[in-house]
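Q: What does the assembled structure look like for these inputs?
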Amino acid sequence: MAEILTKTRARNIFYGGSIFFVVVFIALTAQSHRHIVKTSTAGMPLTEQVALGKHVWEKNSCINCHTLHGEGAYFAPEIGNVMTRWGVADDPETAYEILDGWMQAQPSGIEGRRQMPHFEITEEEMRALSEFLRWADQTDTQGWPPNDAG
Amino acid sequence: MKYQSQSVAKAYFYCAMALFGIQVLGGLLAGWIYVSPNTLSEIVPFNVIRMIHTNALIVWLLLGFFGAAYFLVPEESERELYSVKLAYLQLIILMVGTLGAVGSYLVGIHGGREFLEQPLWVKFGILVAAVIFLFNISMTVLAGRKTAITNVLLMGLWLLCLLWVFAFINPDNLSLDKMYWWMVIHLWVEATWELVMAAILGYLMLKLTGVDREVVEKWLYVIVATALFSGILGTGHHFYWIGTPGYWQWIGSIFSTFEVIPFFLMMSFAFVMVWKGRKNHPNKAALLWSLGSSTVAFFGAGVWGFLHTLHGVNFYSHGTQITAAHGHLAFYGAYVALNLAIFTYAMPMLRGRDPYNQVLNMASFWLMTGGMTFMTFVLTFAGTIQTHMQRVLGENYMDVQDSLSLFYLMRFGAGAAVVVGALLFIYSLVVVRKREVIQPGPAQPGPAQSVAGE
Ligand code: HEM
Ligand SMILES: [Fe+2]
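A:
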């Protein structure tokens, strides 16, 4: 490396530049936070029920088989658009019924097919889970996923 | 070993290797479930096994970093550690927390954010351990000689511990949750851990090649500057489709492309140092791991990361087996192999003997690296087919998966090679055999005159 770039200079560029990028990043994060709350997830209110549903999703560690908005494990289907896939994104009651039916039918026990466990979920929690998934589905994800297959 | 207190590193490295064993065995089991999906499905489902696989990985890598810091900081600072007792206390907290987490996953108690599933008491334990560590190591460094290596190492460790705060921030709004989740995940592996990696690599190069400290340290600052300049805004490559604003598609694509640079520099650095240094260090296995780590990190993180980082590509590949391929090779090259490099370098000294079992150790390098490379290829092929069938043609997820079974079978074979390699590695460091499998040849004096081509 050329002599103009001494060790001290390299160090100072490192510190100064890093601080600059941290500041820019924090500003953009704050703006993104506002965008999420005010715009991209504003299509449906974030009720107590939705929050409970998120808790049910977490308690059962669904993320370690499924993806949600493309993040998670890659062992089972995408869930961020499942309500659209089922055609019930705007129909809370049917959404709940289909979800409940699906969950009760697990594990399928079919030989050679990936198995989803049976979860102990109360009716209240199941309704909340269903609302959480409808809530997630209405998020403005910039057009992702490319199609209903997720 | 110059300083008595360095020996705490030995306990860290043993614990790390034990968790490494658990991690790869968990991974192998998960790989088997892809092949034979009914395995254990009603006793220990896939999600629990995966949590054990990923959590064990993260904790053992951190234990390795902490151990490495306790090993190299006394030498760099030219003094004993501030407190050996605190270092052991920290290790006990971390091990109790980790084994507690594994136990509670097995009985179904866990959080639900990927990689951060630890029950709250474990998260607090980690926080306490991190505070103990930062205090202990900072007190040591402050009282002693300051070098660029300890500077960068400490900065990386401080920042990664601070980022742990985001493990406690879990908003009800899923999109906010995701955005803050990446402040731990991405800013660990693509910013702060890179600082730790560069510092440890710099230390290894200093010791193994005998190159001048000035040269190593200047490289070090350039590497970490490029890492943070690209990696911080590079977080944007996770903000394309989770509800964050559209401008991240440009910021993320551009800055994460630059993330290739620090990995390229680390690889170049390692090879240039070996070329310039010409020191005939007896620990060949440590040198192999150091060069191997920086090279595989360049391919796993740099090349495979770039492969799907542009938003136009990521729109189709997001959350497919391509992501899995990249995650595996990046973690292996950058952080697993680097840890194994410092273990290989330090263990003989910590046990007060010359390097031992080098042939077995080097064989384990090729087994593991060969296995991981093969796994990455088959997952990339599987992911390419998946992307086309599912994301372009719109075919149903489960049907597409069914057509990938041959790849999953090959992935299992690759994983088996990695497990054999990992066990061989652990054996080669833990058990001191009397003789090398292959006796080394006589030492040759360096060439007296320059040879053609130099
Ligand atoms: C050693 C460094 C790195 C490690 C350990 C690493 C690891 C990972 C892991 C584990 C994931 C999956 C996260 C999840 O569960 O959702 C991931 C995702 C990703 N990584 Fe890396 N990575 C590294 C460096 C890089 C670099 C340098 C780039 C870009 C040049 C990159 C680009 C990406 C992208 C675009 C994704 C998202 C994939 C998707 O959309 O599904 N990574 N990385
Ligand atoms: Fe990233």
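The mean pLDDT of chain A is 96.
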